[in-house]
Amino acid sequence: MIRKFLIERRSWIILFLCLQLLSLSMAYLDPDIPLGPLLYVTFISTIIFVIFLAIRYSRETRFYRSLEEWDPHLDLTELSPGSSPFEQIVQTHLYDQTERLRQEAALNRSMLEAEKDELLSWIHDVKTPLTAMQLMIERLDDHAAQEQLTYEWLRIHLLLDRQLHQKRIPFMENDLFIEQVELKSLLSQEIRTLRPWCMRRGIGFDVDLEIREVLCDAKWLAFIVRQLLTNAVKYSENADIVITSYLHSERPVLEVRDNGRGIDPKDLPRIFDKGFTSTLVHNDPKATGMGLYLARRAAQPLHIRIKASSQPGEGTSMKLIFPTKNEFVQIRGM
């Protein structure tokens, strides 16, 4: 800040030095002007000027120092009040601009909330005819048509479910209920939902649960498991998906392992990024790049770590590593 102040006031400093040199030059050239007393006056005036600069530095940089240290947000209470007319002009414009930005942010937030509520309402409204459609499909006598329509119905159902949870994720901390979740019933429900899709692709499930219960939120855990299972089914065919649970380093682990096409090693660090699909099969129409991204986002507030391992052509293993009971103390306090 001292360097910036000296640069800002360099015109004053140069003017003062020029005046002192001018006085000494006149005394040097004119023998009638005594040089000794003039040197003394120059020395005293230089000391006074340095003291003046120090005082002005303390007063003039107080406002700008607080401005430099200010964290750019819409709260201006941390700024020092402007003392000089120029500082007050800057302060007035900052306050006016901040107030305008605050109003725009509040308006945008309100519009986003309204849009989110409208979308959630629309999703809930769509579920009613979707349920009626499912009942109508179940009454069909044509088995081939029933299977095809059930498959398409399931795709719509999963897309709506993903969209619903995607809108809820930013506020999921307000919707958590931590309890002992029975893995068998949760997995059975999710597998039952995916049954038409699995039958179409010749996929079965091999479930072996050593750990039968985990401490978690049932609804959000079901959503995370649903994303892992749909990914496993999507990239597998005529093979079993193995689901196991066990204890590792005192932490419960739920593993979903498929025998699909696998993931290229260079893609593994990016599979949880939003919108990332694959560099190996870049034009895959089945891939959206959202399932694993949403699963990780939902897992973070639950303190669940998702670990992926895979080899191309050998399948993929997705592990949900649950926290210990002690780590849930802060979640229960929400």
What does the model show?
The protein is α+β, with helices and mostly antiparallel strands and 334 residues long. The protein has two domains: 2-98, no CATH class; 178-332, Histidine kinase-like ATPase, C-terminal domain (Heat Shock Protein 90). The protein is 57% helix and 14% strand. It contains ten helices and seven strands. It has helices at 2-8, 10-29, 35-69, 85-138, 143-168, 183-193, 195-201, 218-234, 291-299, 329-332, and strands at 178-182, 204-209, 213-217, 240-248, 251-257, 305-311, 315-321. The strands form two sheets. Strands 2-4-5-7-6 form a five-stranded mixed sheet. α2 runs antiparallel to α3, α4 packs antiparallel against α5 and α6 (183-193) crosses α8.
The helicity comes to 55-70%
CATH architecture of the largest domain: 2-Layer Sandwich
| CATH homologous superfamily descriptor of the largest domain | Histidine kinase-like ATPase, C-terminal domain
- CATH class bucket of the largest domain: Alpha Beta
Mean pLDDT over the full residue set: 83
Distance between the termini: 44 Å
The fraction of residues assigned to DSSP E strands is: 5-15%
The unreliable regions are none
What name does CATH use for the topology of the largest domain? Heat Shock Protein 90
Summary of the model, kept short:
The protein has 334 residues and is of the alpha+beta class. The protein has helices at residues 2-8, 10-29, 35-69, 85-138, 143-168, 183-193, 195-201, 218-234, 291-299, 329-332; strands at 178-182, 204-209, 213-217, 240-248, 251-257, 305-311, 315-321.
